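Hey, I'm writing a tutorial for new members on how sequence and structure tokens pair up, and I'd like a real worked example in the thread rather than a made-up one. If someone can provide the structure for the chain below, I'll link this post from the tutorial.
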Amino acid sequence: MFTGIVQAIGKVREPEVLGDGVRLTIEAPDFGMDTVRVGDSIAVNGTCLTVVKIDGDVFQVEVSAETLSKTTGLDTWGEVNLEKALRVGDRLDGHMVLGHVDGVGQVEVMEPIAESWHLVVRAPMKLSCYLAYKGSVTVNGVSLTINDVQDTPAGTRISINLIPHTVEVTTLKHLKPQDWVNLEVDAIARYVERMVSLKDNDGLF
């Protein structure tokens, strides 16, 4: 489990083809690799991956074909948001994040407004029921609050205000219109929707 509070930005070297998937080598000099062990879970751009090798400030993870088919940005080089898994007793400063990407959204707007930034992402229709005003959403591993929701035939448009600190310490600074991003909805919303659907359809509750 994670919080969506990015701890460092890593840099992916050229991915290595591994069967139908890829092996990523990630340079993370600011990530505190002294506390990372082989087998640990790391959120890479919001996707929970397992560390398979460590060499100083560099670690490797393997991404399966299934994961590649459900995410974006994990098969290329560049900067990625990194977060270590929570330990018992850690502070939960963002929200409960599982590292299981629910869908891929597309950036429609990324523009400065005064000292902040206005981000608008179009999410797929299947996620619409989980996205709510003042609710939480994870974008490329970053815990964010939704300021506005608009349902359209092409999907749900969510508007988010990014404070300067968030832009500075994450890869969201690089986003531009038409870019694709990994989205994870609030885990609590997922369970609520499940319970409500069972009650309405099957009368189990």
